[in-house]
TrEMBL record:
The keyword S-adenosyl-L-methionine does not apply. The keyword Acetylation does not apply. This is SGNH hydrolase-type esterase domain-containing protein. It comes from the Eukaryota. Residues 176-329 form the SGNH hydrolase-type esterase domain. Transmembrane segments: none annotated. InterPro entries: CtCE2-like_dom, PCW_deacetylase/CE, SGNH_hydro, SGNH_hydro_sf. Keywords: Hydrolase, Signal. One of its GO terms (molecular function) is carboxylic ester hydrolase activity. Residues 1-22 form the signal peptide.
Length: 437
């Protein structure tokens, strides 16, 4: 039984046909939201203005040379003085795009952004804006919620006499490479409710990048309307959205790995679209692409540890219980590939790959490398009601995946948890007021 076929078809099509809309539907009902209107007329203010390339502004995730954001949950972060932060967005912004922003360790505030407009995001009236300490200076972080949409930063403003402050990056970094499952499709706040975001934010003191895009395959072919697969696209700044082709045509900027710090841990969850018979990717073509992605990561970031996640494909009801669909989705092939990476033969003479030149290079090394590819078994983490009718994790499902991954990373690499307080998942506070029913 493969009901996931029709479900995942929706996944590709929805991306290209939907328009930006501020409505969040929750189990078919309109969710009550309170998104402040932050648009402002810049001529009504006196600002001190910083250009998009100001060194005080840190860009998180993938941004191109025009300061346009790509992939899932990209963001900016900086410290500031005063109680005013406004941003002017460029006209390459997706009009109406929903962004989340937060002051210090407070909850996210959501607002939709108008292309070419200035938005007053922090003022003394913003909840929490006047609270002082312990986080000092005040920090401002903004993230785009949707993978297919983006913003362009034109300038950042503070009050006259005030300033932006460059915040040092955290000392550890995670990158998640994936498809809709990592991008946060069908969770409440999309990228900002995804397990990939929850992993980075939940560990705390961790920089994170989510190079996930709905419908994309590992194999370099059209999957659900994505013209390229991750074995190609991961090496580029932009994703496979129609927005990308509208903005740069077929001239995508290669990602400048030399200019950005290496990830310490790379989590890969890709193959759900490859295994879908709609896309006609053979197991051999899939494994070849996944192998090259890992060899690409190893080439760009020689010290990165790679975690390959086993795939999950939803559940079906059988009589009075539920079973996972195709529990063997490329399971044996992925395991064999991981074993290959960890073999003496491979580690004595590893191969690296570059997705721009398409060149594989066999390294001649003096000393055998240590194993760097790990297998993360997802079986048993999600139950049937952790996956919504659109075949993607619910908010609860996403939190489960993130939490188990955090534990795996703590056990395997000794990473401590630092996020012991700051809001991680917006609007997931469900509780019971009445103890006696
Ligand atoms: C947010 O965007 C939606 C869709 O474009 C629009 O209906 C809504 O009025 C906007 N909300 C605000 C506060 O601007
Ligand atoms: C920002 O861009 C401007 C104009 O291209 C340039 O003159 C300036 O040096 C850049 N600033 C930084 C910090 O890179
Ligand atoms: C977009 O912004 C750029 C730079 O500010 C400007 O040169 C261009 O004319 C604008 N395009 C449109 C369509 O508004
Ligand atoms: C799927 O791929 C196989 C092998 O490359 C090919 O023979 C077949 O025609 C393809 N089917 C479709 C529907 O594209
Ligand atoms: C993954 O976990 C499931 C459930 O515990 C187990 O049945 C399966 O053997 C595991 N697979 C591997 C490759 O360890």
């Amino acid at each position: 039984m493969l009901p996931s076929l029709s479900g995942l078809a929706a996944l590709g099509l929805a991306v290209f046909s939907s328009l930006v809309s501020g409505t969040i539907l929750q189990n078919g009902q309109v969710r009550e939201i309170n998104f402040p209107n932050t648009r402002t007329d810049p001529s009504a203010h006196t600002f001190k203005t910083y250009p998009a390339n100001a060194s005080e502004i840190s860009y998180k995730g993938r941004w191109d040379s025009k300061h346009v954001s790509w992939w899932s949950a990209p963001g900016i972060k900086f410290g500031y003085t005063g109680q005013t932060v406004a941003i002017t967005f460029g006209n390459l912004t997706s009009n109406g795009v929903l962004v989340g922003y937060r002051i210090a360790g407070l909850d996210w505030i959501f607002t939709n952004i108008t292309a070419g407009a200035t938005h007053l995001l922090v003022s003394p009236e913003t909840p929490g804006a006047t609270l002082t300490g312990p986080i000092n200076p005040w920090t401002f972080e903004l993230r785009v919620t949707n993978w297919a949409y983006g913003v362009q930063i034109k300038s950042v403003h503070v009050a006259p006499g005030e300033r932006l402050i460059k915040l040092p990056d955290y000392g550890r970094r995670i990158e998640v490479i994936g498809d809709s499952l990592s991008a946060g499709m069908y969770t409440s706040y999309e990228g900002l409710s995804s397990w990939a975001y929850g992993l980075g934010a939940g560990l705390g003191n961790t920089e994170y990048t989510v190079t996930g895009y709905p419908g994309i395959c590992a194999a370099d072919q059209d999957c659900w309307g994505n013209p390229r697969g991750q074995v190609h696209q991961w090496f580029y700044t932009s994703d496979t959205s129609s927005r990308a082709y509208e903005i740069h045509g077929d001239k995508a900027e290669p990602w400048d790995f030399a200019k950005h710090p290496a990830a310490d841990i790379v989590v890969i969850n890709i193959g759900t679209n490859d295994q879908n018979s709609h896309n006609n990717v053979s197991a051999a073509a899939y494994i070849d692409a996944l192998t090259k992605i890992i060899q690409g990561v190893h080439g760009k970031w020689p010290s990165a540890q790679v975690i390959v996640m086993s795939l999950w494909l939803g559940f079906y009801q059988s009589g009075n219980t539920y079973y996972p669909n195709a529990p063997d989705g490329f399971v044996r092939e992925i395991l064999d590939m991981v074993k290959g990476f960890n073999s003496d033969a491979y580690l004595s003479s590893p191969t690296i790959y570059d997705g721009v030149t398409k060149k594989s290079t066999k390294l001649r090394i003096k000393k055998k490398e240590k194993p760097f590819v790990h297998y993360f078994n997802t079986s048993g983490i999600l139950q049937h009601n952790d996956i919504g009718p659109q075949w993607h994790p619910t908010d609860v499902g996403a939190i489960k995946v993130a939490s188990h991954l955090q534990q795996f990373i703590q056990r395997t690499f000794g990473w401590e948890f630092y996020a012991t307080g700051p809001e991680v998942y917006h609007e997931t506070l469900y509780w019971n007021d009445e103890p006696n029913y």
